[in-house]
């Protein structure tokens, strides 16, 4: 936590979640290291690529990714939570490029690129013989059967969810402190346990309204099985950093970004007490494109606001 405090920037932070479809989750359960590693790489590359697009943000961003493999009922539900500062370095590294307030990147665009990158990576793992298949999935060892298994996923919508922005760097730290070392179930969710069953609270997300919290009772063997499927391979890192937050360059990049943010010019327009945008000196001395005379601002209003002036001043004077 101390290390993360030193990395926090005075900017808005965003929270993006990448989730694997159920057909992929089944493969991941039998190939944890390979598929979870691909999930990290594909999600990070998706964000880095879209953010670098000049039509989007046009900047080199950084991120911290945290792997979760469980749902509320301890079923297998692999997904990564990605925490991203709201901006990045310009391509030449000379300035900080901030995103729009409250908006980072379009989730539909992220979803399509994530789908393509992940499926390409999964096929590459299969060709390299790095995937194993057992039980109902054993037929997927055959290349044609594997392609047929993935075919429905090429047109399906993949879940990429952008949560509301964090309330500030302090909220990011609070999130990390709660979730980075969490296991499949915490003690406070346990209701009871005896020689035959274990009862615990879970949230039913299928219920749109009302109380989602329920109590599930499982045989001890099934409870232990569900818990153990979330044990990660030995030495597998479930927290990873990419972009300007990557290990090895993070400290230098953070110091540079702080200097750039401190030097960033103030916005061209300031906000008055009534919430309207005040004109700067360049607006006040703007010349008329027809006669060349100085133009005078009659009224300033925000986007979506109806102007109060119903007629030009020369008509009122007449």
Automatic annotation (TrEMBL):
BP term (GO), one: DNA transposition
Lineage top rank: taxon: Bacteria
Region Disordered: start-end pairs: 263-283
All residue ranges annotated as the Transposase IS801/IS1294 domain in the record: 62-249
One Gene Ontology molecular-function label: DNA binding
InterPro entries: Transposase_32
PANTHER family: ISSOD25 TRANSPOSASE TNPA_ISSOD25, TRANSPOSASE
Protein name stated in the entry: Transposase zinc-binding domain-containing protein
Species per Swiss-Prot/TrEMBL record: Roseivivax sediminis
